[in-house]
Amino acid sequence: MTTPLKDKYELEVIPIAIGGKKLDLLGLANWDSFIKNLEEQGEEYIRKFPFWVKIWEASVVLADHLIRIGLGKEKDILEIGAGMGVTGLFLGAFGYKITVTEYEEDALELLRMNVEHNGLDTVTVKKLDWNDPDLTETYDVICASELIYNVTFMEPIIKLLRKYLRPGGTVFLAHDVRRKCMLQFIGMIPGKYEIENIAKTMKRDDEVHKVFIHALRLK
What does the pLDDT average to over 83-98? Predict the structure, then answer.
């Protein structure tokens, strides 16, 4: 029997506002002590780091960008590697129909909790294994933030995009400018896409974060 998320982590409500709407997201409460405990494990730190517990600046920037440009309420949207699901949850808050996916069971539980907590009835949460994807639908838009932090993910994601993006569809990928893996990934993308690179900035806790958004439009 799996341990409930609330018994593994101390959770708190984190209010976030994007595009004039506010969501109350359940997230990690003891962030500083959590990171300190992981760092004390030395080499195990990165391997064990649960990337899904952090609200990445790129996910906030991506949500804001997609809300501003407008995607069309009739479109089917997929978020991959959702983590905390900031982008997908806010798209749902604005009435978009979106499937939000993750692989880690704890991340999936937290996503479902936040969907229920915020009453987002246009958001569906599904498990997705990039190496063995089993979704039955295709999508007009696929989005992700801070998706690639390991080169071994690149080929499976290229195949996943090819499998699930509809003709004429668009992929939106957002990342901090310091993430070199994503720039390497964009260089591997086949010539079937027209690529637009968009630079954004976000100020958070007196720090300016520079974020790239890559819009890949299937020709």
Answer: 97
Structural domain boundaries, residue 27: 5-218
What phi, psi does 81 have (nearest 5°)? 55, 45
CA 116 to chain centre: 18
Task: Compute the distance between CA of residue 91 and CA of residue 118 in angstroms, rounded to an integer.
Answer: 12
The total of structural domains in the chain comes to 1
DSSP state of 76: E
What local confidence, expressed as pLDDT, does residue 58 receive? Answer: 95
pLDDT digits (tens, 9 = 90+) for 161-179: 999 999 999 999 999 998 8
pTM value?
A: 0.91
What CATH number does the domain containing 102 carry?
Answer: 3.40.50.150
Count of alpha carbons within 13 angstroms of residue 113, beta-carbon side? 18
Give dist(CA 89, CA 145) in Å, integer.
Answer: 13
